[in-house]
Amino acid sequence: MPTAERSAVDVTSTSRGCAPAAGAAPHAGIAVERVTRRFGTAGGAELVALADLTLHVAPGEIVSVVGPSGCGKTTLLELICGLQRPDAGRLVSEPAALMPQRDLLLPWLSALDNAGLALRARGVSRAAARATAGPLFERLGLAGFERTRPAQLSGGMRQRVSLARSLLAGKPVLALDEPFAALDAITRAELQAWLGHTLAGERRTVVLVTHDVEEAVLLSDRVAVMSPRPGRVVTELEVALPRPRSRTDPALVQLRAQALAALGGRA
Amino acid sequence: MLPPALALALLLGIWELYVDLGGVNPAILPAPHAIARALYTDRQTLWSNFLTTAREIVLGIAVGVATALVCAVAIHFSSVARRALYPLLVASQAVPVPILAPVLIIWLGFGILPKLLVIALVAFFPLVVTTLAALDAVDPDLLKLMRTFDAARGRTFRHVELPGALPGLFTGAKLAAVFAVIGAVFAEQTGASSGLGYLLSITTSNYEFAETWAAVAILSAFAMALFALLAVVERRALPWAYGGAR
Q1: What is the secondary structure of A175-196 as a DSSP string?
Q2: Could you tell me the CA-to-CA distances from A102 to A82, A183, B123, B161, B215 in Å, in that order?
Q3: What is the domain partition of chain B in residue ranges?
Q4: CATH of domain B44-239
Q5: Region for residue B207 given its phi and psi (left: phi exceeds 0; alpha: psi -120 to 50; beta: otherwise)
Q6: What are the pLDDT digits (tens) for B14-45?
Q7: What residues of chain A lie within 8 A of the CB of B246, using their CB?
Q8: Mutating which of A16, A106, A173 best tests the B interface, going by the most B Cβ atoms within 10 A?
Q9: Is the pLDDT of residue A31 over 50?
Q10: Predicted ipTM?
């Protein structure tokens, strides 16, 4: 990567390593300013995943990003998490932990130890990791499943354990990558309500990537609609509705229609 | 246990009938009953030679497992090591062991060391290949996740990659156990004064084929026992790799 481009990236995004997380960043929350991300393809051609994308997320705000498949939503999350670097533009984010689409639980660990992996990754002892993860299990409706292995858990329970793990990473920002896409409709509705409730009790900045417009308006303070590749934010919709929200609330239904229209207009 | 026992009984039955009724010279192909008799009458010789060979095989596999783990981890961590070592690993398997064994004995003497090296050499390759394949098969998304958790490379290895590679290591060990038995025979055919491989060369050169087959039967049984033992240990140690039981 040319130095000129790298210098355009604020240093805070590089200091996520082991540096003290909160308070160190000059800008709290997330600022993505005119970020471009390209990939080289096998044929030598260039694929522009994100072009001039701008998105700001205030501290404690929950922002959903919706868009068609392949519009670069996952690339955006990986940029925020520091797993990739922008080719142009400026990206500043407080340290972020990912919650992947597939739960990626380790089959040889119990549910509690899987959640504790985020702590073990930083060198916390097994006993201390369990002691920290235990109370969170209570809060997330996982009590009684501490010693169960992932193979014995339902898809919904596995996603709960996966969120517990990402919460335990202790980062101010949560990057959720289509967390409920693989679940059946009933479980998904149940987990959406559960996630809304859980996030209400957390002081976290959240970026939720989803292709489910209803999920976006149900859970977030703002919905950013992305265009097909190369991805950019085409519309942002404020969701100024009180929580807990109902799917059948006419105001919510109308916002959902607006978001769908914005998606359709660009598809 | 029943199907393999029946299959073995059927095989021995056909063999017995073929030698008894097929007009085969029993001095060249002894019937199973003659082999069984040799197993009984030569039991002391066979047992003491078996102990020598078993010790070589177990130690040889241990050396093979240790070096294979080190190599697999080095190759997994370093692309330079991968480019430098992988071709050598493949080439090492093309070395004809029956030729190499006498060379090692001339070089290293008549002790256990050259035998361990030969056994380790044949056990090594399946271990490296299966362990490395398992290490490389770790989900890249899981590695990304660990990076967002600020995991140092060593901790990702310890908590994610190494446990995930254990089924591969066991697959390699089961293959290695069988190859090691063949390696031990080659190693003992020159420059040994005891062991089942030594017994094989003595008895074949004396046309004592019943005794030869008796030694072969013991080697096969030992290979099966090692394989079964590893399979049991694997099921106990890695229940998660077998679905169901916790």
Answers
A1: EEESTTTTS-HHHHHHHHHHHH
A2: 19, 10, 37, 18, 54
A3: 44-239
A4: 1.10.3720.10
A5: left
A6: 999 999 898 888 888 999 999 999 999 999 99
A7: 149, 152
A8: A106
A9: yes
A10: 0.82
